Amino acid sequence: MQQKNSVAEIPVLNVSALRGTCTHDLRGVTIEKLRHTLETVGFIYLSNHGIDDELVERMRDAVVRFHDLPQEAKDRLLINRFHRGYIPARSSTLRTSSVAEVTRPNRSDSLMIMHELAQADPAFLRGDPLQGANCWPEEFPELRTIALDYMAALSALGRDMAVALAEALGLLPTWFLPHFDRPTLFLRLLHYPHQGPVTEDAGIGAAPHTDYGFITILAQDNSGGLEVQAKNGDWIPAPPIPGTFVMNVGDILSRWSNGRFASTPHRVINRSGNRRFSQPFFFDPSMDSVIECPSSLLQAGETPRMPPVRWGDYLMERLDRNYNYRNSPSP
């Protein structure tokens, strides 16, 4: 597919215009821009988001520091049945991709961190799906504090965006919030090695795919490599813009909106000549949340495109198919 050289197709949204100090008219214009962009592009840059630049940089430095640990230190944290821990390169294949037939594993490796649970939490004690302990490297004890502070800050931003997204759909501002009383949170510390020529045999950093969930809020390094597929099939670069995050719609939000908001295919190809690092944060509903298009979004005679689905069931089906460790016998 042709690759364009402009990010004009991916607008920048001033998040401060969604907060209480802005005028009603400015908020309305911003909500309309959000609605139009997510209906047509599915990706948007977030500026003036209120997240401290220093926290973002500390998290960015922590990603590099983690991946600079000796391999044996990372291997001690191999991903557990709660989907927390180190994911080696070439150990996941996006078999559930709806936009490409993916047969080659992704070339990236990563540390998956999820919402932290108290050991007395009933879900933790029962061993419910994804309700277990995170894996922290003993060689880098500061990572836990940095990561959890970052996740708390981005969770607050995620809730702000959930309010704006409800308004953009014509729903009550608080419509989504009950579905996030125990949100499913993922912070993935990703490393893409230097990549030579892109061939079918070599694979790419992340194959074309859509995200599973509600929204993804991404901080990239300066390497570039993220590409978004336009409606006509062209691949549009989405390079880092200082002081912004990239936010995109996931499959569940698209399903909730009856397809109004586009869960857009994207991929990563590291052409920088250097290692690439990124820190996507996935803000998703509570595991028991039922995803069903609200009747108020349906026009006369229109029916939901998809049947209701429990988020936890939807998520686990995808993890089971895409990650090698979930199909390996227990040690």
Based on helices, strands and strand pairing, what is the structural class?
A: alpha+beta
Tell me the strand order in the biggest sheet: 1-2-10-7-12-5-4-3
Q: Under CATH, the topology of the domain at 50-221 and 272-327 is which? A: Jelly Rolls
Strand content: 15-25%
- What series of H and E elements makes up the topology? EHEHHEEHHEEEEEEHEEEEH
Can you identify the CATH superfamily of the domain at 50-221 and 272-327? B-lactam Antibiotic, Isopenicillin N Synthase, Chain
Protein name: 2-oxoglutarate-dependent ethylene/succinate-forming enzyme
Family: Belongs to the iron/ascorbate-dependent oxidoreductase family.
Catalytic activity: L-arginine + 2-oxoglutarate + O2 = guanidine + L-glutamate 5-semialdehyde + succinate + CO2; 2-oxoglutarate + O2 + 2 H(+) = ethene + 3 CO2 + H2O
Cofactor: Fe(2+)
In short:
The termini are far apart. This protein is α+β, with helices and mostly antiparallel strands.
Top keywords for this entry?
331 residues, Jelly Rolls, four-stranded antiparallel sheet, 7 helices, alpha+beta, disordered N terminus, 14 strands, iron, eight-stranded mixed sheet
